[in-house]
Structure formats: structure tokens, C-alpha cells
Amino acid sequence: MLAYLAGVPLLGLAGCDGGRAFSFSGDLLNPNYSVAHRLRDGWRPPPPEGDPGGRRVVIVGGGIAGLAAAWQLSRRGVEDFVVLELEDRPGGTAISGQDGEFRFPWGAHYIPAPMKENRDLVALLEEMDVIVGRTTDGEPVVGEAFLCRDPSERLCVDGRWHYGLYPDQDATESDLRQLERFQQKMIELAHGRDDRGRRLFAIPMATGSDSAKVRALDRQSMAQWMTDNGFDSPRLRWLADYACRDDYGLTLEQTSAWAGLFYFTSRIPAEGTESQPVITWPEGNGRVVRHLAEHCGDRLIGGQTVVKVQNQGEGVRVEAVDNAMLASVAYVADRVIFAAPQFVAPHVVADWNASGRSINSFHYGGWVVANLRLSQRPSERLTEMCWDNVFFDSRSLGYVTSTHQVGLDHGPTVITWYQPLLDDDPRVSRAELMRLDWSDWARVIVSDLRKGHPDIESLIERLEVMRWGHAMIQPRVGFVFGAEREQAAKPIGRVHFAGTDLSGIALLEEAFSRGVSAANAVVQADPKSRA
Amino acid sequence: MIHRAPNYLLYLNVLVIATCGLIYELLAGTLASYLLGDSVTQFSLIIGVYLSALGVGSWISRYVETRVARTFIEVEIALALLGGLSAPILFVAFAHIAWFRILLFGSVFAIGILVGLELPLLMRILRDHLDFRELVARVLTFDYVGALVASILFPILLVPRLGLVRTSLLFGLLNAVVGLWGTYLLRPLLSQRGLAGLRGRAFLVMGILVVCFIKADTLTLWTEEAILQTPIVYTKQSPFQRIVVTEDRGAFQLHLNGHLQFNSRDEYRYHEALVHPAMTAMVDPRRILVLGGGDGLAVREILRYPSVESVTLVDLDPAMTGLADAFPPLAELSGHALSDPRVTVINRDAFVWIDESDQTFDAVIVDFPDPGSYSVGKLYTTRFFNLLRQRLSDQAVISVQCTSPLVAPQSYWCILNTLRAAGYDALPYHAAVPTFGVWGFALASTRPLKLSADGGPELASALPQGLRFLNRSNLASLFQLPVDVQPVETLPNRLNDQVLVRYYDQEWRSGG
Ligand SMILES: Cc1cc2nc3c(=O)[nH]c(=O)nc-3n(C[C@H](O)[C@H](O)[C@H](O)COP(=O)(O)OP(=O)(O)OC[C@H]3O[C@@H](n4cnc5c(N)ncnc54)[C@H](O)[C@@H]3O)c2cc1C
């Protein structure tokens, strides 16, 4: 408890494992919720001193959505803004870490190469020199250094690694026929258009179809959809279940069929049959965060928890608590872009309750992410280490190798291990997250990795565990096309909302597009405001 | 009664036991000298440990007071398991554990004790049934005959035909058979109690050994065993690869992870062909970069040019660039090239170094291993060649070793096409190296390469003195491609789609 109050990440009691000590140690981390918990427990921050700072726009939250909003404001000529971020560093669920020469992700770690229609994201990646040209038909060309290096993924079944994610060992004729039929079906859905000419599934999702047929998909689970369509091959269902766990932190049964199909179809180009290649960096999407944050400069202020956002006449009053000094700061802004997750909004936005909204259907899953520093690579027999390394018989999603994209294939490395908690009630997951200590997680992680690397334990030098309580919005059945989500995206007075959760799925593209749209809305609302 | 068993069966037993015993010793000795190098030391150590363990075993036999026959059978089963699995376990363990020597000598000692127990026990079993004088004479005779059989079979038949792992498993099986057979042969001396268990265990051990025997091919180190045909004179397991030097008819050969890299007899052909076309393509090359080539042999060729001011050699493995120090014949062969004051050695993955460095070079000699894995394949991608471009001075020329255009035409042309896709002008050329056959190279530059009238590249400077393979006119002939080495269409090798590794795998697996 003391550790929570002090706002420092909890240090794990390293090395204890029910009597069996590990030869390595590490920290148990979590997002900083000290101020949030104090507020919940009745604490009230001191009133702000001095005159409130005037700004044209205050952005609440420095995740991808908030940073994208700032970036877009600049592009539209609005430079008078601040981004207030609760953590000391920006990024939200796309933060990354560094240990000596190694950079590694703590959350989001890749983006599929955007297609030309996703103009703003293409512009950002051009600015970052990640997109280096265009094909004759205008499709972006991604620099070779940023496309996930071959071999990209492998699967461990019964202790044996194989390249690729489909568990094809001992697959029957019928398994393979279903796989092919499934792929055909996905291409068909990707190429399909509704009667207004929109893609059925597009990125950003708001540009895709919302026809009755598409909305209906959200009312059944992906598992049900597969059954209804004759996809009963256990191998294929494993692959689809893995995809849902990987992208949404949900099982096949929990995921809305709309979201499941979105995953498989939205990245297939209009003329193509293959999903777009993956862009990645050693630190994952932390690279995008760094670029956007550099652009903000000192207009990005860390360690500021926004505790109040209130429409007041011709402006909005924003109050924030400086986490370090526990002093309050106030701003008066023409407009606010609220780019923190929706579950925060009822506690912070003053007019939220009066707006008649509800967020009962917004569920955020718990995730555990661990970074392991290895003194050496595990010994390999049938394959080489890939970027993404997955275990068939596991609740985890496996691990990504941070040095893969750098091209370092020998010696020490850092690997990042992921596991979503799949409970039907995310509150149960969060309780479990908080209950387990460092050595519990160390045991879980080591025994998981041992499935594919019998020698792993002797190679671990450090193991750090991040507990994400509200890691990502979950596209459960009925959520994406439910009324609450559509309502949440609308402004309250001069407060505009951004954040990936407004899309119902947690993706950089969605967070980015929500941020950009909110900035556009702000600029359009009062184009001639003071600059 | 045991009397009823024909005598020759009993002696056959002794023969088998004796053969097995010596085979385990030979296996351990061979394995140790193979894995650890320095065969004289390894063999004497193994023999010493083994003989002393035999003594310990014989001595221990006096404490077996009752149930001698049962103990004998137990010993056979234990020996079957321990001896039979010794080679596979040691091979696998070598790659994975740090205390390999402890395991090696521990297992040799344990096997020695068990073998040492065998004969005293057997003689005690037989003594009631044979005249003592007769017994000693016969048993010892068959013991020595067994040793002779083993020592002849081992080098002539077993190692070349079966390899170490299967030999070990086979003789383990024989021990198990003797144990199982004993439960019938010595039946009158055994109590009924536990007999079934004894047989069950014998069958279990036989089962394990048979399964291992069938699966032995999947043991990764199998491939390395192939090179055992020639004596090993140096070996080292670095974190990156297994370095083995063998000696054959007065020449030595370097193997990395079981792949032959060069033979000292004809490596000059390879290295002259690799280095001189690039070095002579410009006037007075001064700063030279060598990628791979940690043996220093390419550097030897480079240092023949008086204009050379500095040579930077980037090779992943310190054990490779230090090989000349550890194995003096290589230092001599390379003319002590890596100790030359002009040479700087950098141990780093070239893929990473090339991006970190800010130097530029007049000539680059790319001498990586063949693209048999993705971690090497990345060094032949458009990405890599694009990074390399930033390390090139204006007039720079590079040469690249490109595997065999005969065995692996797709791989060979893929590398050329990759260079072209990365914006280089690339010329294919080849040389005959007896150890490898026809070998392929590429000469490339970011500017158009000038050709002379004879079809070869224009020589801007003269070839240096002292070459054994190349002169002016046959250098040009390297660039005339034979009819069976003609361009093949391939995709370029990209970092996110390493077709080269797949071409290579297919071609060498089917053709190599
Ligand atoms: C483990 C994991 C892996 C993922 N992998 C991928 C991936 O590979 N690819 C991908 O595209 N997406 C991935 N995602 C999803 C991706 O991280 C998100 O979609 C995206 O980054 C969300 O950005 P956001 O700005 O909407 O929200 P967040 O990242 O949640 O940012 C919200 C920010 O608001 C701040 N904040 C909250 N309350 C306050 C307050 N009161 N005052 C001030 N600031 C506040 C938070 O500290 C945070 O920085 C992953 C997510 C997780 C958890």
C-alpha cells in the first residue's frame, strides 16, 4: 500500500518462489494509479493556486490518441496546446523500455503497413521515413528495415518449433481444405462492398460499413460464426482463437464475430489476397510515441493527472494534480480533447453524468507483459528464433524478440512475453493481477517458456513484469455496434473525445485516427479562434 | 541346471561382455578427442580413468555375498542403459552444459565400475560348474578375444557404418540381451521373486535403446560425425559455432558447424579469386573492408598490395579471428595477416556494424558463410547491400562469395539479382577450387563496371607478385561463364522475405 501511495512501481520481492529461489531478479510494475486510488478513497486535491493558464486546446492523456491529436493540431496550424499525461513518460499502452543497448516494448509492438486510403497515418510514417515511396498506383512503400524480418513467426507444438503459426503437423485433408476455404472467405469479405460502396471492414473502422448485415455480425461470437459457416477444424479454430487472444485479449467465444472478421479481413488490400506486411521496431510502437512526443516538445507535460474537466461558458476549465508535488494546476481552454480511456471520463468530466451516458458495456481486459533479459539465446534445433514465437498449448501468446529487427542474432537479448487474462469478468482478472506476486509470475513465465526452451531458466538475467489492469478495450459480443460506444464518441459541450476504445478495438490505427479526428473537429468548430 | 547349457554359450557370453566393455572405452576416447580435441591427452585420460574404474569394480565385487547371479543380471541391465546411452547423452550434453568433462569422466568411471564387476561375478557363478584352472584360462581367453574383436570392428566397421551414437546404442542392446538371456540361463540360481520385474526392466531398457537407435538420425550432431573420417587436430565450441580443424594428407581443413570452409591445399585458388578482381579494379586501393573471413586468408591476399593503408575485418566470432593464435598452422598459412599493424579486427555482427560505422572503404571483400540460415541470409539482402553502399567510397568495388553456381544456381543468381536490385552493377564470375568444385563470386560496384576487350573487368592496377593461381589472362577467363553456368531468373532476397535461404536449402539438400 505504501508503495502505491508513493506512486513508485511496486518492487517484487525478488528471488522467492515457495522456497525455490530463482537465480535472477526483477521488478513488478504497473501503471501509476496512485492519484486515481487516492481520489477513489476520498482524497481531494488542494485547490489550484494562481491564475489558470490559458490555452486554445488542452489534451488529456499522452497515449497514441492524445499525441496524434497534438500532431494533427500542428498540421492544421494550431500550436497553442498542452498535453497532460498522468505518467512521467508518454505512450500509454504503447510505452517501451530500454536496458543498455536494448530497446523493447511494454505493450503495443507492431502496426500492419497502412494502405493509401489511411492518409494521415501514411503521412506520419512518411514523416518518420518509414514509408519511403509510392508504387505506381499510389500504395505506400515501406522501407525494408521496418518490415518484420524473415523469419517472422513460429509455433511450438509438443516441444518442437515450426515456422508459421498454423499448427499444420498431422493436419488432415479436411483441416487443410477448411483452412483454404477460410482464407478464400476472408478474401471475399475483404473485397466485398456494401450498397454505399464501403468496405465491409476497413481501417479506421469508422470508414467501414455499418450496414445491417455487418452490424448483425457483432451480435454473435466468432466461435458461433465459425460453427455456422462449417469451420469446425480444431486447427483452424485454434488459429482464430489465437488471433482473438492476440489482438483483443479475448477467446473465440468471447469475441464478437465482427471483430474476429475485422482482424482477418481489414488488412487485405482491395486488389490483393494477402494481409499487409507488418511494420515493427525493437521498441515496438514506442518508436511512434517517441516521434510524436518529440514533436510536442515541452508542450507535453508528464506526471499530471487530470482530475477535473468542466465546460464553463465559452471555455473549458481543466484541473490537474502534479503527481510529484501533489499540487494542483488549472487551465482554461477553448476546447479539450479528452484522450484518456472512457472508464476515466465519469470521474473527471463534470458534465458526464448529466449527459445521460453509460459505459457499462466498456470492458477493459487485464494483461501481463514481461520483459526478460537473456544472457544468451536458447539453443535451437529445427528453427531459428523468430520475431514472434508462440506456444500452441499455452494461455500465453508467446514472446517477441526485441533484437530481431536490429539483426542481432547472437548473444544477449531481451524478449517480451505476453499474456491476456481471459476471465469472463475482467474484474476477476484485475483481482488476480494484483494478487499474484513477482515470483508467481516468474514461475508462470518460466514454465511457459520452458515448453519450447528447456534451457531458458539458466539464461534469464532479469525478469520484469508489467501488470496492465485496464490494458485494452474488449470487442465482446454486441459492444462495437452498441449504442453506448456510438454515444461515447460524441463531444460534451467543448470537450471532444479520442482514444482507441471509442472504436471498440485497441489498435494504433484506431487510436491515431480518433486523435486526428478530434483535432480536426476542434479546428473546424472554431476556425478563427486565437492561434 | 546351468550344466545343461552348452559351454560355448557361456563363452559367447564372456565374448560379448568383453567386446562391449572395450567398445565403451573406445567410444569415450573417440568422443572426447573429437569434442575436446588433443586426442593423445584425451585417450590416455580416458584409458586411465577406465582402467582404474575396472579395478574399483572388481574390488567391489567382493562385497556381493549373496544373490550373485541376480546382481550379475542387474549389472548387465544397468550397463546396457548407461553404456548404451553414453554416446548420445554425451553428444547432446556437450552442446548444452558447461561441466561436460565432469559428465564425461563420471560416466566413463561408472561404466568402468560396472564392467569391472562383470567378470568376477561371472567367474563366481561359473566356478561351481567348471574346474578352476579351466575356468580362468577360458574366461580370460575369451575376454582377450573380445577385446580384439572390438578393436578391429570399431574403426573398420562400426564408426564408418554406424557412427558413434548408433554403435553405443547397439552395444548397449547387446548388454541388455546378455542380461535378459541370463535370466533364463541362470534360472536355477535365481529366486522366483522379482524375476518378472527383472525381465521387465531388461525389456524396458531394450525398448529405450531400440527407439533411440531408430531416432538417432535426428540427433543434430549427426552431421558433424561425418567429418570424423579424417583426424581432428583442433576443435572449439564458441557461442556462435563449432570450429573443427581436420588434417588429411598433409593439409588441414576448417569446418564450421560441420560445413567445410577451406582446405589448406587449395584455398589459395578461392582467396585469390575472391580478392584480386576487386583490388585490381581501381588504382591504389587504400582502405579495405573484409566482412566475414575471420581466418585471415583474404587479408593475406589484400596485404600484397603496397597501396593498402588499412584493413578492417569484421567477423562475428572472436574464436574465429583468434584461430590463427590458437592453431599456429593457420597463422603460417595466412602469413600472420591478422597480426599486421595495418589490420583492425572487429567482432560484431556485420549487419549491425555496417549501420553503426561511419567509415568508407575503397574495396570490400564479402566472405560470409553460405546463406544456409536466416541469420546469415540477412547478410545477402537488398537491405544489407543498401547499408553497405553507405560504407563505400566513390570508386569502390566489392566482391562477394556466392556459393556454387553449379550445385545451387538459383541461390547463386539470387545473390547477383539482389545486388542488382540494390542498385549495383554486378558481374558474375567463377573459379575452380578442387575441394569445392566450381565456385561462384560477384564483382559489383555502385558505378558501372568497365569491361576490357577480353570480356573481363578492366584492370586499373596490376596483379601483385607471388600469386599461385591468377595471372592477367586467366583473371579475365574467370568472367567467361561456362555453358552450364547461365543466368536464372529469381526474386531478389529481401530482409522481410528471404527467398535465398529457401532456394539454398532446397538446392543443397537435393543436389549437395
Ligand atoms: C499489451 C498490449 C499490447 C498491444 N499490442 C498492440 C499492437 O501490437 N499493435 C497495436 O496497434 N495496438 C496494440 N495494443 C493496443 C494499443 O496499445 C492501443 O490501441 C493504443 O496505443 C491506445 O492508445 P490510446 O491513446 O487510445 O490509449 P492509452 O494508450 O491507454 O493512452 C491513454 C493515456 O491517458 C493517460 N491518462 C489516463 N488517465 C489520465 C488522467 N486522468 N490524466 C492524464 N492522463 C491520463 C494514460 O496514462 C495513458 O498514457 C496493445 C495494447 C496492450 C495493452
UniProtKB/TrEMBL annotation, chain B:
Residues the record lists as binding spermidine: H271, D295
Protein name (Swiss-Prot/TrEMBL): Polyamine aminopropyltransferase
Annotated signal sequence range: none
Keyword field: Cell membrane, Membrane, Polyamine biosynthesis, Spermidine biosynthesis, Transferase, Transmembrane, Transmembrane helix
Function: Catalyzes the irreversible transfer of a propylamine group from the amino donor S-adenosylmethioninamine (decarboxy-AdoMet) to putrescine (1,4-diaminobutane) to yield spermidine.
Pathway connected to this protein: Amine and polyamine biosynthesis; spermidine biosynthesis; spermidine from putrescine: step 1/1
Bilayer topology: Multi-pass membrane protein
HAMAP family (alphabetical): Spermidine_synth (MF_00198)
EC top class named in words: transferase
E.C. numbers: 2.5.1.16
Membrane-spanning intervals of the chain: 12-36, 42-60, 72-96, 102-123, 135-157, 169-190, 202-222
GO CC annotation terms, alphabetical: plasma membrane
Known partners and oligomeric status: Homodimer or homotetramer.
Family matches, as InterPro entries: PABS, PABS_CS, SAM-dependent_MTases_sf, Spermi_synthase
Family: Belongs to the spermidine/spermine synthase family.
Residues that, per the record, bind S-methyl-5'-thioadenosine: Q241, D315, D349, A350
Active site: residue positions: D367
Occurrences of domain PABS (ranges): 202-446
GO molecular function: spermidine synthase activity; thermospermine synthase activity
Gene Ontology process terms (BP): spermidine biosynthetic process
The species this protein was found in: Roseiconus nitratireducens
